[in-house]
Predict the structure.
Amino acid sequence: MLRQPAAADRFYPGDPARLEQALGQLIPQVPEKVRRPAKAIILPHAGYVYSGATAGLTVAQVTVPESVVILGPNHYGQGAELALSAADWSMPLGEVPRDRPLSERLLAASSAIVSDDLAHEREHSLEVQVPFLQAQQPDLRLVALAVSQVSYGLCRQVGQELAKAIQDHGEPVLMVASTDMTHYKPRAQASEQDRLAIERMLAFDPEGLYRVVGERGITMCGVLPTTIVLLAAKELGASKVELVHYTDSGEVSGDTDQVVGYAGLIVS
């Protein structure tokens, strides 16, 4: 099975030459010896013109191993609530194989995650991250998990199951949580709401993040993937979350009345 791109020529250039050029402008050249291993990164997933610089600044600072697990929100509500792609992914920069051993370990470890490609057919939140990862790791293998509405208890369970699968895998694995921050609010309101969410992330407080987003009505679309990744990273021994960059769509569009916030963070 081969998943075809759903977001090419909408969120990012579908032409390989133009995509490589765009990535070259968005990802700073950081010497390999300066890059550091991380348990996870948190990246935005809007069109590259809006959020690509934030994603590029973040991914440039970490070592991207061959095995990467991407968790993103299911914007369309298709398929299972915790849907693992069973396909290899066709992308403009080349085919990215599914990491079969790690996928199988995750399915074996979890009573909640199921193999389901319907959730991935139209979803952009995971796809837009792949070219950034390919640019840093040409031998990329992918585990892609689309997350719908689940409880904090289920987030905690899946975080533990994901950590176990990664531990059993025995090779370096980077987790990527894909999320945009507040959607379509005036800049002052968006930045204040996003500050509350980012504070919980920087405090490495996944339950607090889940709670404040719900209680304050923060429209952070990937709060559940981010919560799961933070929980798994804690299980794997991570102890620190750093903010690399925060911006909003108004920096590009000039419209500060209805912005979307974007944040890039590193979990190590």
About this structure: The mean pLDDT is 97. The chain has nine helices and eleven strands. The chain has one domain: 2-267. Residues 152-169 form the longest helix (18 residues).
